[in-house]
Amino acid sequence: MELENKVKKLTLGHEEGSGAPCFKCKDKCEGFELHFWRKICRNCKCGLEEHDVPSSNEDDRKVGKLFEDTKYTALIAKLKTDGIPTYKRNVMILTSPVAAKKDVSINTVTYEWAPPVQNQTLARRYMELLPKERQPVAGSEGAQYRKKQLAKQLPAHDQDPSKCHELSPNEVKQMEQFVKKYKNEVLGVGDVKLPKEVGAAPGEAAKPDSGNRSTLTTVKSADDKGAVPSGSAYYCFRCKENMKEGDPAVYAERAGYDKLWHPSCFVCFTCNELLVDMIYFWKKGKLYCGRHYCDSEKPRCAGCDELIFSNEYTQAEGQNWHLKHFCCFDCDCVLAGEIYVMVNDKPMCKPCYVKNHAVICQGCHNAIDPEVQRVSYTGFHWHASPDCFICSCCSKCLIGQKFMPVEGMVFCSVECKKKMTS
Ligand SMILES: [Zn+2]
Ligand SMILES: [Zn+2]
Ligand SMILES: [Zn+2]
Ligand SMILES: [Zn+2]
Ligand SMILES: [Zn+2]
Ligand SMILES: [Zn+2]
Ligand SMILES: [Zn+2]
Ligand SMILES: [Zn+2]
C-alpha cells in the first residue's frame, strides 16, 4: 500500500530552470524547457547544467536528501515547515580591509562552498591549493564549475525515485535498496586536516606495541621510488608526490586515515573531475563521483540518463537503453525494430535523418538514403550509381574507374577537366 502511494506521488521537476538561456547555444535556444523524460532541454537538447539557471535551493535540497539517513546528518538541517532536509553548505566569506586615503573599504570574497572545518586558515589554504578556475568564488568561473559538477556528479535521479520517470513499484523498491546500500557503505565526505594532526584519528588506533606515530601514516615503501624526499613523509594516494609541510590534506573516512590526498588530487577515478564539495563514493580502493560510482554498479539508460532497475533493457551501439527509450533523438519515435542512423552517438529515425542530416548527392542533388551505397570524397558525396557518379563533362560512369576530383566535380580525364575548368 505504501508503495502505491509513492508511485502516485511521482512528479518530474518540470519547473526548475524554465526559460533559462543556454550558455552553449546562446540565441539558438529559446530558453530551457525540460524534455518529457530525457534530462535535457527540449529546445536545444543541452542539459540543465549548460543553462544559466539562477541559483535556487534545488541543489541544497538535492545534497540534503543525499545525506539524509546517513552518518553525515550533521551537514543537513530539516526545515520545521516541510521536513525536507537541506544541505548546510559552509559558505566562507573572507574580508580584507583596504586602506584608502581616509576611509577603509572592505574587500569581500564569498566562497559558495568551503570545507566544513573550524580552522579558517586551513579552509583558506585548501582553497589556494585548488586551481584558480576551480575555486567556487561567487560569480566566478569556479562557482559555475561547481554548479555544473553538482549536476553532473550527483544526478538527483540517481538517489530519488520521485525524480525518475514512470518507475514500476518494483523498480522503486530496488532503487531504494540500492540507494540505502551506497549511503551505508560507500558515500562519504572528505575531511580536511593537517597530516601531522591525524595520528590520533578515529579508526587509526595505534597497535598496542607500536607507540611510534609515524607508522600510522602512509609512507611509500622504500623500494618504490628510493629515498623519501626531505620535507614531509606524507604521500598523496593519487599522484604519489609528497605533501608540503604545513599544507592541509584531504582524508576520506571510508578509505581509512592512512590515505590522504592533495586537495586538487581529490578527484573521481573515472571523470577526473574534482569531487564536488568533497562528496565521494569509495569502492575497491578508488574514489568516484556519484554518477560514476552508480555507473560501475548499474546500467544507465542513454536515453533518459536514469539508472536501469528493470531486467528488460536493450543494448545498442555500446550503450544501454530502457526499451521504451531507444528512440529517435529528434522526434522521440520508438526505434525498436526500425531502421535508425547514429548521429553523434544518438540514434535517429530514417525520416528525421533524411530531413536533417542526410548528405546530398552531387550528381542528382537529392538526399542520399542512409541505406543506399554512396561514394564520398573530400566532403562531397554521390549515389554510387551510374546515373550520379559520372564525369562532370562527358557523363561517363566513374564507378570503379580512376577519377580526378575538382571542388565537388569529378572528371574521367585531363581533357574533360580542361574543358570544364578553363
Ligand atoms: Zn543548448
Ligand atoms: Zn536549451
Ligand atoms: Zn596528489
Ligand atoms: Zn566521475
Ligand atoms: Zn530510459
Ligand atoms: Zn525521428
Ligand atoms: Zn544522385
Ligand atoms: Zn569525361
TrEMBL record:
<keyword id="KW-0677">Repeat</keyword>
<dbReference type="GO" id="GO:0005938">
    <property type="term" value="C:cell cortex"/>
</dbReference>
<dbReference type="InterPro" id="IPR010442">
    <property type="entry name" value="PET_domain"/>
</dbReference>
<dbReference type="InterPro" id="IPR034959">
    <property type="entry name" value="LIM2_Testin"/>
</dbReference>
<feature type="domain" description="LIM zinc-binding">
    <location>
        <begin position="234"/>
        <end position="297"/>
    </location>
</feature>
<feature type="compositionally biased region" description="Basic and acidic residues">
    <location>
        <begin position="155"/>
        <end position="165"/>
    </location>
</feature>
<keyword id="KW-0965">Cell junction</keyword>
<dbReference type="Pfam" id="PF06297">
    <property type="entry name" value="PET"/>
</dbReference>
<dbReference type="InterPro" id="IPR034960">
    <property type="entry name" value="LIM3_Testin"/>
</dbReference>
<dbReference type="InterPro" id="IPR047120">
    <property type="entry name" value="Pk/Esn/Tes"/>
</dbReference>
<dbReference type="Pfam" id="PF00412">
    <property type="entry name" value="LIM"/>
</dbReference>
<keyword id="KW-0440">LIM domain</keyword>
<dbReference type="InterPro" id="IPR033724">
    <property type="entry name" value="PET_testin"/>
</dbReference>
<feature type="domain" description="PET">
    <location>
        <begin position="92"/>
        <end position="199"/>
    </location>
</feature>
<keyword id="KW-0963">Cytoplasm</keyword>
<comment type="similarity">
    <text>Belongs to the prickle / espinas / testin family.</text>
</comment>
<dbReference type="InterPro" id="IPR001781">
    <property type="entry name" value="Znf_LIM"/>
</dbReference>
<keyword id="KW-0479">Metal-binding</keyword>
<comment type="function">
    <text>Scaffold protein that may play a role in cell adhesion, cell spreading and in the reorganization of the actin cytoskeleton. May inhibit cell growth. Regulates cranial neural crest migration. Acts together with prickle1 to control axial elongation.</text>
</comment>
<dbReference type="GO" id="GO:0005925">
    <property type="term" value="C:focal adhesion"/>
</dbReference>
<feature type="region of interest" description="Disordered">
    <location>
        <begin position="134"/>
        <end position="165"/>
    </location>
</feature>
<dbReference type="InterPro" id="IPR034958">
    <property type="entry name" value="LIM1_Testin"/>
</dbReference>
<dbReference type="GO" id="GO:0008270">
    <property type="term" value="F:zinc ion binding"/>
</dbReference>
<feature type="domain" description="LIM zinc-binding">
    <location>
        <begin position="299"/>
        <end position="359"/>
    </location>
</feature>
<protein>
    <recommendedName>
        <fullName>Testin</fullName>
    </recommendedName>
</protein>
<keyword id="KW-0862">Zinc</keyword>
